[in-house]
């Protein structure tokens, strides 16, 4: 194609949205004008979205998602474009997460977004609003993003999900006892799925715990590795597989030292009795 601009999805969330939109449009075999006809805008508008010159509105992202059969991927990426309260690196990470074959997740302090109920997510973000860390609008967007991320992983073939939670994640109350009861129920349901493993890393591990900060390691379809690690203020996305290998090894060590899934489920069931 003559004069077709190369897209760099790593440049920004808008660029990632545009690259995904173009890829899905190409797969459908549509021109920009044809997609514009389906979603009620001009081909020039689609072009501006694809090169990242114009940010997508939620309404247009939803229409494009439906027209291209994207199953929430475009809507999810549009949330990342609009979400100014996300930690650095996280919007880019989301685009990889929704395509990964395997997700290995370690979380400290709170239940991670992929396993949160909507009520738990809302209580968590309400606390951030109370502390004036984010605005109410940003809190609402974060809660919607939780739903979008979970929906994006509900696909076929289903990705393998390995989750290790620090014991503090399940001991820290969030919201009312009813909210925690429902959250524990969701964790137990998650552990029963055929493509998931859920483990608790107990406090008693002490110095044997090889990781101290949240970490996610993704295995992509080409078997390349991507990691995302967070501190309180920064996130780091690493796409060099060789650099990720030591983190993957540490994750395997964490799994070996953590409680078995059966013991972890028993702990959650016991905790759930305290919310009744």
TrEMBL record:
> Where is the HTH cro/C1-type domain positioned along the sequence?
21-75
Coiled coil spans: none
Organism from which the protein derives: Streptomyces gougerotii
- The lineage's top-level taxon is Bacteria
- Tell me the GO molecular function terms: DNA binding
Pfam families under this entry?
DUF5753 (PF19054), HTH_31 (PF13560)
Q: Which InterPro entries match?
A: Cro/C1-type_HTH, DUF5753, Lambda_DNA-bd_dom_sf
Q: Which PROSITE patterns match?
A: HTH_CROC1 (PS50943)
Q: What is this protein called?
A: Transcriptional regulator
């Amino acid at each position: 194609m003559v004069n077709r601009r190369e897209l760099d999805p790593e440049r920004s969330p808008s660029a990632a949205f545009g690259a995904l939109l173009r890829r899905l449009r190409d797969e459908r075999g549509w021109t920009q004008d044809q997609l514009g006809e389906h979603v009620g805008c001009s081909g020039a508008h689609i072009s501006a979205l694809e090169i990242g010159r114009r940010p997508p509105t939620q309404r247009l992202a939803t229409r494009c998602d439906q027209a291209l059969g994207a199953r929430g991927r475009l809507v999810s990426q549009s949330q990342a474009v609009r979400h100014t309260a996300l930690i650095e690196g996280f919007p880019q990470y989301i685009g990889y997460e929704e395509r990964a074959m395997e997700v290995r997740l370690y979380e400290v302090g709170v239940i991670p977004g992929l396993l949160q109920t909507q009520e738990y997510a809302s209580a968590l973000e309400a606390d951030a609003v109370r502390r004036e860390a984010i605005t109410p609008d940003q809190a609402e967007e974060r809660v919607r993003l939780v739903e979008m991320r979970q929906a994006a992983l509900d696909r076929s073939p289903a990705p393998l999900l390995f989750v290790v939670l620090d014991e503090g994640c399940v001991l820290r109350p969030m919201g009312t006892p009813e909210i925690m009861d429902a959250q524990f129920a969701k964790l137990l349901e998650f552990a029963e799925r055929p493509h998931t493993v859920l483990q608790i890393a107990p406090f008693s591990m002490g110095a044997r715990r090889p990781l101290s900060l949240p970490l996610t390691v993704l295995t992509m379809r080409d078997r390349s590795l991507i990691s995302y690690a967070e501190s309180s203020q920064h996130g780091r996305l690493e796409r060099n597989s060789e650099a990720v290998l030591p983190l993957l090894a540490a994750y395997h060590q964490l799994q070996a030292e953590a409680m078995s899934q059966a013991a972890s489920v028993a702990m959650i069931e016991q905790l759930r009795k305290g919310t009744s």
